[in-house]
Amino acid sequence: MGASQSGNQHHFKTMAQVDVPQGRKGKHNKIVSAILNELDQLKAGAALKVPLSELDDTMENVRSALNRATRKQKREVATATDENFLYVWNTK
Predict the structure, then answer these.
(1) Are 78 and 66 spatial neighbours (Cβ–Cβ below 8 Å)?
(2) For residue 67, what are the CA distances in angstroms to 12, 24, 46, 55, 77?
(3) Could you report the per-residue pLDDT of 40-87, keeping only the tens digit for each?
(4) What is the 3-state secondary structure (H, E, C) of the chain?
(5) What are phi and psi of 32, to 5 degrees?
(6) Alpha-carbon distance 37 to 75, whole Å?
(7) C-alpha–C-alpha distance, residues 5 and 8, integer Å
(8) CA quadruple 27, 33, 36, 42: dihedral positive or negative?
(9) Which residues is 81 bridged to in the sheet?
């Protein structure tokens, strides 16, 4: 760890700002993107049926990530679950 001009020790390492990753692509990005893409093509009155076994994380965490993404895009979707599936559909 480097020293500052006043002689104090830095607690964290430094790096060039241009090398800092921009944006956030969390671990749910792939499944959430796939769901959103399929919602774009979904007919009115239909719902996606996503097997819980295909999720890389808990259903709650994927649902939360989907909720964040849809709010960011100002989309309105609804979800439901049972013991095997996450159901997702457009509400507008």
Answers:
(1) no
(2) 33, 15, 19, 15, 8
(3) 999 999 999 999 998 888 999 999 999 999 999 999 999 999 999 999
(4) CCECCCCCECCCCCCCHHHCCCCCCCCCHHHHHHHHHHHHHCCCCCCEEEEHHHCCCCHHHHHHHHHHHHHHCCCCEEEEECCCEEEEEECC
(5) -65, -45
(6) 12
(7) 7
(8) negative
(9) 86
Query: Which residue reads 């993404």 in tokens?
Result: 69
Task: For residues 84 and 76, give the distance between their C-alpha atoms in angstroms, rounded to a whole number.
Answer: 23
Token reading at 55:
């999720």
- Six-digit token pair at 35? 């769901």
Q: Quickly tell me which residue has 């939360």 as its tokens.
A: 64
